Task: inverse folding
């Protein structure tokens, strides 16, 4: 098996996550990157979408997770995205999700807070 990586970089959304009530009320900018590891050799040879991951579907999973929920932690958001994307296709071996929260309330200047979550399909860890 030869593995490749399909990525979506810097998907940007406005959402309402955070520990502080003001974050839930006002909202803020969130950026998401995802890297999905899979063997897409057959897709590359045949030019067949059903032999790889459809990144439009992946984007919609991310959009819904970010914009239709209100979590305290971006760790929870990254975890949810990773698990929902893994469930999309049996072709995926692993995913890595990065969630960035712009201008986090840390008491001073800070571009963003960032978490990275990696997950492998269940058969790899059982």
Result:
């Amino acid at each position: 098996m030869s593995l490749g990586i399909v990525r979506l970089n810097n998907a940007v959304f406005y959402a309402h996550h955070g520990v502080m009530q003001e974050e839930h009320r006002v909202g803020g900018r969130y950026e998401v990157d995802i890297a999905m590891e899979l063997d897409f050799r057959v897709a590359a040879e045949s030019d067949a979408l059903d032999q790889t991951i459809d990144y439009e579907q992946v984007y919609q999973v991310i959009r819904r997770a970010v914009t239709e929920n209100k979590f305290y932690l971006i760790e929870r958001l990254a975890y949810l995205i990773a698990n929902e994307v893994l469930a999309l296709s049996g072709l995926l071996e692993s995913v890595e999700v990065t969630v960035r929260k712009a201008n986090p309330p840390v008491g001073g200047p800070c571009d963003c807070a960032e978490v990275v979550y990696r997950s492998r399909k269940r058969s790899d860890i059982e």
Remarks:
- The first helix runs from residue 21 to 26.
- The CA atoms of residues 102 and 112 lie 4 Å apart.
